[in-house]
Amino acid sequence: MDDLQAAVGVVIRRERRERGLTLKDFATRAIISVVYLGEIERGKKYPSPVTLERLAEALDLSTSDLLERIAIELRGVEQPIEARHIGFIAPPRSADSGAPAHAGGRVVNLLSALVA
């Protein structure tokens, strides 16, 4: 996915649905209007940094974790569902060597350093 605004919306909607939150409940938790939240999820509006922080908090995520999920969506790399559910997102593997194709997130880097 190339469009940042659309990627933000896709990730916000997916994370909200995974938590079983309605638009109204989630908007209340994030202290934004339902209309504005719907526009964000449809990729029509881009949230301000403060709104992104509120959305992350309402999803029980850190802002950096939310931004990492958005970055993964932008890259178009599909992660296993199990990995997302436990909060660990492993880097994709290179087809040739089986080694990680990129550095990945902080947790992945830490684990890679411990294993190496």
Question: Any overview of this molecule?
Answer:
The structure is a single chain. This protein is an all-alpha fold and about 120 residues long. It has two domains: about 5-75, 434 Repressor (Amino-terminal Domain) (Orthogonal Bundle), CATH 1.10.260; about 90-115, no CATH class. The chain is about 60% helix and about 0% strand. It contains seven helices and no strands. It has helices at about 5-20, 25-30, 35-40, 50-60, 65-75, 80-85, 105-115. Helix 1 crosses helix 5 and helix 2 crosses helix 4. The radius of gyration is 15 Å and the shape is globular. The model has no long low-confidence stretch (mean pLDDT about 80).
Give a short summary of the structure.
The protein is 60% helix and 0% strand. It has two domains: 4-76, lambda repressor-like DNA-binding domains (434 Repressor (Amino-terminal Domain)), CATH 1.10.260; 89-116, no CATH class. The mean pLDDT is 81.
How do the helices and strands line up, and which of them pair or pack?
Blueprint: H1 4-18, H2 23-30, H3 34-41, H4 49-58, H5 63-75, H6 81-86, H7 106-115
Helix pairs in contact: 1-5, 2-4
The number of E-state strands comes to 0
What do we call the CATH topology of the largest domain?
434 Repressor (Amino-terminal Domain)
The residue ranges in which pLDDT falls below 50 over 5 or more consecutive positions are: none
Radius of gyration: 15 Å
- Residue fraction in strands: under 5%
Helix proportion range = 55-70%
SSE sequence, one letter per element: HHHHHHH
Number of domains: 2
User: Please, how many helices?
Assistant: 7
Mean pLDDT: 81
Identify the CATH homologous superfamily of the largest domain.
Answer: lambda repressor-like DNA-binding domains
* Terminal CA distance: 33 Å
Return the CATH architecture of the largest domain: Orthogonal Bundle
Largest sheet geometry: none
Q: What is the top-level CATH class of the largest domain?
A: Mainly Alpha
Structural class given helices, strands, pairing?
mainly alpha
Shape, per Cα inertia axes? globular
Oligomer: single chain
